[in-house]
Amino acid sequence: MSAERNPTRLILASKSASRRAMLDAAGVNYDAMPADLDERAVEDNLRGATPPEIAEALSVAKAAALAVRYPSALVLGSDSLVVVGGRRFDKPVNRDEAAEHLRFFSGKALELHSAAALVRGEGCEWSHASVARLLVRDLSEDFIAHYLGLEWPAISHTVGAFRIEGPGVQLFESIEGDQFTVLGMPLLPLLSALREQGVLIA
Questions:
Q1: Whole-prediction pTM value?
Q2: pLDDT digits over 72-116, tens only?
Q3: Catalytic residue among 24, 36, 44, 79
Q4: Does residue 116 lie within any of the structural domains?
Q5: What's the whole-number mean pLDDT along residues 173-196?
Q6: Partners of 130 in the beta sheet?
Q7: 142 is catalytic
Q8: Interacting residues of 193 by C-beta distance below 8 A, sequence separation 6+
Q9: CATH number, position 34
Q10: Cα–Cα nearest to 131, from 76, 174, 82
């Protein structure tokens, strides 16, 4: 019988509950810790980049920020961003801004770009971005107030002001794209990359 292999240590550079839930459900062993990164400073160097390019670059930067501290580990960074009507939306800073976002989204198509990257030491081993398109139904003021009463402040850390696995699903008429992309990480391509990197059994 061959000796048990020594798997590569995987670190998730995030405290995102949805990303941890995806990895947990998939049976991936990892440690989670937040990356110390000034995302706005990274974006200042990405002027003219497309939304998927920005999401992918931020994923790499998050992983790289932690990889310098753990050079022998494989560090996973991930990022999501929302574009509606050609305008990019960040996480709402307060409940009033979340309501403004939802009013703008009402009746429009929302593009959700999610990316992930694997970094070891100073090198990016893999990165990938994917997109989902979600059609927001017409939202009444009564619904917006009721929804935020249920979901604020839990959604304060989410782009798009929703959790698809919760009451946020009521925002939409239809969804085109991978469910994992909507949850915030392109999981199937990531699992393939983790097999190639020796984190998972191929």
A1: 0.92
A2: 999 999 999 999 999 999 999 999 999 999 999 999 999 999 999
A3: 79
A4: yes
A5: 97
A6: 114
A7: no
A8: 118, 125, 126, 128
A9: 3.90.950.10
A10: 82
